[in-house]
TrEMBL record:
List of residues binding Ni(2+): H92, H94, E98, H137
Annotated ranges, domain Thioredoxin: 217-311
Pathway assignment: Amino-acid biosynthesis; L-methionine biosynthesis via salvage pathway; L-methionine from S-methyl-5-thio-alpha-D-ribose 1-phosphate: step 5/6
Keyword 4Fe-4S: no
Lineage of the organism: Eukaryota, Discoba, Euglenozoa, Kinetoplastea, Metakinetoplastina
Family listed: Belongs to the acireductone dioxygenase (ARD) family.
GO molecular-function term, one example from the UniProt record: iron ion binding
Keyword vocabulary terms for this entry: Amino-acid biosynthesis, Cytoplasm, Dioxygenase, Iron, Metal-binding, Methionine biosynthesis, Nickel, Nucleus, Oxidoreductase
Protein name in the entry: Acireductone dioxygenase
Cofactor (UniProt): Fe(2+); Ni(2+)
Length: 346
């Protein structure tokens, strides 16, 4: 994604950038919180071998079909193009995810954040955008009036829009989307409570969030150290309640057992749990996935379980990041191992 920003509720020309004054940038984290997925591919990689590129992507995303559309007055005629442009810019939802990979040209996806504010996403060749089913959004080309996109579908190609209103609000897609947006996070050891059980959804937000949490824990546990268990696991499909990662399913109760052991080892109040969900589409086949490159997490596969304790003199390192404040005691891809927590506890 080249850039995203908040925009006014009303605009004079939809094809202008339409930024607030002063400009208010959007963020990957807010988009992720809203359910939007983004990834950039090399446009040349796509165009050189379309079929070779798309088939593995369909398998990874569990989609079945695709087509390519060319939206421009030259291709459709001015009247038909403008009619479609008006239709696409009406705020609407779909009952399926909208998956678009930009091949040529540029356009703007406008999506609603969790507070129902508009965020505008500038989309260029190579940008892949997934707008979840039930999320209000709209689309427009910029002033060139030209965009060529690859559309990906779960079944046969189709585009059915439900404009914002009572009918759209009553659809199962909208209700499920809102329930996911508002639901408290569930982990392998219980509901996140931001005291002893944490759930951090967004990789790019990890270091800032976990540093804040770690410093707070160091203050709260100044008399007796704590132990932090981190569980990296394939994210859960909200429609089935099951992880996309087959090995993560049996790992879930095993992790719960290991956490109970950790509570017995260091005291229930001093055992802290953090679950980090790993999204299939952004993880599989992506060597640049943030958790893979992270100096402490070093994610090689899911599931992965880590246990960390405060580093020596951590309480005196006020300007440090969490990975400097904690040291890894356990790292394992097999949460079922019975002697996993066989480390010295002070």
């Amino acid at each position: 994604m080249s850039e995203c920003w908040y925009m006014p509720e009303e605009v004079a020309d939809r094809r202008d950038e339409n930024r607030l004054s002063p400009n208010v940038p959007g963020s990957y984290e807010v988009l992720g919180e809203s359910g939007v997925f983004y990834r950039h591919f090399d446009p040349k990689e796509v165009s050189d071998d379309m079929e070779g590129f798309i088939q593995p992507l369909l398998q990874k995303l569990h989609y079945k079909s695709y087509d390519v559309v060319n939206l421009s007055p030259d291709n459709l005629g001015e009247e038909k193009f403008e009619a479609l442009a008006e239709q696409h810019f009406r705020e609407h939802i779909h009952e399926d995810d909208e998956v678009r990979l930009i091949l040529e040209g540029q356009g703007y996806f406008d999506v609603r954040d969790p507070d129902d504010k508009w965020i505008r996403l500038l989309s260029k060749p190579g940008d892949c955008i997934v707008v979840p089913a039930g999320m209000y959004h709209r689309f427009t080309t910029e002033h060139s009036k030209y965009i060529k996109t690859l559309r990906i579908f779960k079944e046969a190609p189709r585009w059915i829009a439900l404009n914002r209103g009572p009918e759209a609000e009553e659809t199962s897609a909208r209700k499920e989307y809102l329930s996911r947006l508002r639901a408290p996070a569930e982990t392998a050891v219980g509901t996140a409570n931001n005291r002893t059980i944490y759930f951090l959804r967004y990789p790019l937000q990890l270091d800032a969030s976990l540093t804040t949490i770690t410093k707070r824990l160091l203050e709260q546990h100044s008399e007796q150290p704590f132990a932090l268990m981190i569980f990296l696991t394939g994210s859960t499909d909200p429609t089935t309640g099951v992880s996309w990662c087959p090995d993560c399913v049996p790992a879930k109760p095993q992790v719960a057992e290991r956490f109970t052991e950790l509570q017995r080892k260091c005291g229930e109040a001093h055992a802290i749990f953090l679950q980090l969900p790993v999204e299939r589409a952004s993880y599989l086949g992506n060597p640049a996935f943030p958790y893979r490159k992270h100096q402490t997490l070093q994610l090689g596969s899911v599931p992965t379980l880590l246990v960390l304790t405060p580093a020596k003199n951590a309480e005196n390192k006020s300007d440090s990041q969490w990975y400097d404040l904690l040291e890894v005691k356990v790292r394992s891809c097999d949460p079922g191992k019975r002697d996993l927590l066989n480390f010295e506890w002070h």
